[in-house]
Amino acid sequence: MQALRSHEQIRDANTRYHDVAATTYDAKWGIDFGEIGQSQVLGKVRKLLAAEVDAGFASALEVGFVMPPEPGADGAAQTSAA
Question: What is the mean pLDDT of residues 73-79?
Fold first, then answer.
């Protein structure tokens, strides 16, 4: 049986869906980057590290995620496999 959609078509549909759905992820999953969220995270860290949190840390490493640029965002020509 032949697939109804190509790998590229499926990936494109998933990407477009997630781009639209991502605008509501924070609210849907209760993610809060304000005072409430910070308090929740600090509470979990205190539970894990107890006294070390109150004493402070000499250094820290911030871990984050950088989104890759959109295709063609660098001015490079885009090609289409139509």
Answer: 53
Place of tokens 């494109």: 12
What is the distance between the alpha carbons of residues 38 and 44, in angstroms, rounded to a whole number?
10
What's the rounded Cα separation, in Å, for the pair 73 and 71? Answer: 6
3-class SS string, the chain: CCCCCCHHHHHHHHHHHHHHHHHHHHHHCCCCCCHHHHHHHHHHHHHHHCHHHHHCCCCCCCCCCCCCCCCCCCCCCCCCCC
Angle at 44 between CA 41 and CA 47, to 5 degrees: 150
User: How many CA atoms lie less than 13 Å away from 1 in the CB half-sphere?
Assistant: 3
Binned at pLDDT 50, 70 and 90, residue 73 comes out as: low
Average pLDDT, the chain: 79
Q: Give mean pLDDT, residues 40-58.
A: 81
